[in-house]
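Hi R.,

Here's the chain you asked about this morning:
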Amino acid sequence: MDAQPAGTNLTGLRDHNTALVMGLLRAAPRGGSRVELAAATGLTPQAISKIVARLLADGVVEETGRGTSTGGKPRTLLRLRPEAGYAVGLAVDRAETTVVLGDLAGVVRHEATHPIGLASARPERVVELLAAEARAAIDKTPHGSRVLGIGVGCRGPLDYASGILHRPAGLASWNRFPLKDALAERLDGLPVHVDKDTNAAALALPGTGGTAYLHVADGVGAGLLLDGAIYRGARTNAGEFGHQVLQLDGPECTCGQRGCLEALCLAALADGDHHTTARLLGTGAANLVRLLDIDRIALGGRVVSAEPEIYRNEVAAQLLARLPEPDWQHVAVELAPAGAASIAVGALELVLGPLFSTRLADR
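And here is the predicted structure, written out as tokens:
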């Protein structure tokens, strides 16, 4: 069992310690023993025993038999019970919404896409429709199941803490709309967590280090996963990757500026030119790598899904051509593993992540 960030034996940080233990069990399908958990977290055996006792009483973990003997009495193995809780993830863009139901381990049990988006109707009506789809997903859980909350990945800009949208391009009626509170009100106070769609998609990516998720659909954006945590910035508005200016006299963008990467990409896409769009995306990616020294680019979104190899190959080629020492500063380019469901799957992590780790911490 791999080591996690060090735990603490102070009572005031009990939830932190529990998250470390649950994170280790989530990452170990075969299970783990109390001794292994203590060694991996740095917690005392007594602290581990108390945490495990609470988790067993809550039905979150279970004992699954004995491990292999190493000379003494075989140790009792523990494993996470995926059916102990469920969450709903919503990916909301201009024209449609993808809904997933996931269990405690983050495994998707149900997925559906509906023609409901931010541009479909007035905000209040859209929220009513989103709430109805969330309830429909919840109805697919076994009777008496624990529903932990709703995660929403939505087009930004938005304030992660308050769940209020701020001037999303081309969607004036959503400016200052309190999406988080409005949805929670229609779901009888069930916890609701809202983040930018690109941040949510970044949460669906495995691994640590420095990763940028680049999204191309009806806009261009990025989610930044730095040292294992989402980087949101001082106003939780980091990642407006599509609004870096590449051409001073370029076409007008929906943000009001000219020559933004997003405007240039959408203009190329209007002509059906994926190769030019991919080259532009690669140019922007090279700027991002030089700024943040990240080591991985993950690509996603409806446009990328239409021609995945063009985008992966062209972005990689642009990085190779534009980085001063590409052999030294190697950057992996890959497609987001969850594919078209990346945002919705990541939205599940807005609910589940705090139970297992600190990946959601603001930076």
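One quick note: The chain has three domains: 11-80, 86-200+343-356, 206-336.

Cheers,
M.
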